[in-house]
Design a protein that fits this description.
Elements (H helix, E strand, L loop, with lengths): L1 E4 L5 H7 L4 E4 L11 E8 L3 E2 L1 H10 L3 E8 L9 H10 L3 E6 L4 H17 L2
Parallel strand pairs: 1-2, 1-3, 3-5, 5-6
Antiparallel strand pairs: 3-4
Length: 122
């Protein structure tokens, strides 16, 4: 399992680091055929998917088992909307929307989801 993160301000990277898996920056990602991927990305411009995430997903979406998205709750219905768009366009389950670097209980949600997914596919 590799966590691929897309982080402009470092918040998504901090969330990714807290999960305890191998990490790769989305901009320097080097694929390995045997690994499943989990994407930690961000919403920008009131819920849009970043260009780096679009480029990454156009090449690697079939290997991505889930996505968690950072955003700003002040954006209302657009909070984490990039995750909704990724789920719709690429069929990748949206596991979590979080704000900032996430809270401990949010990190647990993602960790538990990854463990459950890995157990089902073992």
């Amino acid at each position: 399992m590799i966590i691929v993160y897309d982080s402009l301000t470092g918040q998504s990277k901090r969330f990714a680091e807290s999960l305890g898996y191998e990490l790769q920056d989305i901009n320097t990602f080097k694929p390995n055929e045997d690994d499943f991927l989990f994407l930690i990305t961000r919403s920008f411009n009131f819920g849009e998917v970043s260009q780096s995430a679009k480029t990454f997903l156009s090449k690697h979406a079939k290997k991505v088992i889930g996505v968690a998205v950072s955003g700003n709750r002040n954006w209302g219905t657009n909070f984490g909307a990039a995750g909704d768009k990724i789920e719709t366009e690429f069929g990748i389950p949206l596991v979590l929307k979080f704000e900032g670097s996430g809270m401990p209980h949010e990190r647990k949600i993602v960790k538990d989801w990854i463990l459950n997914h890995a157990h089902k596919n073992a």
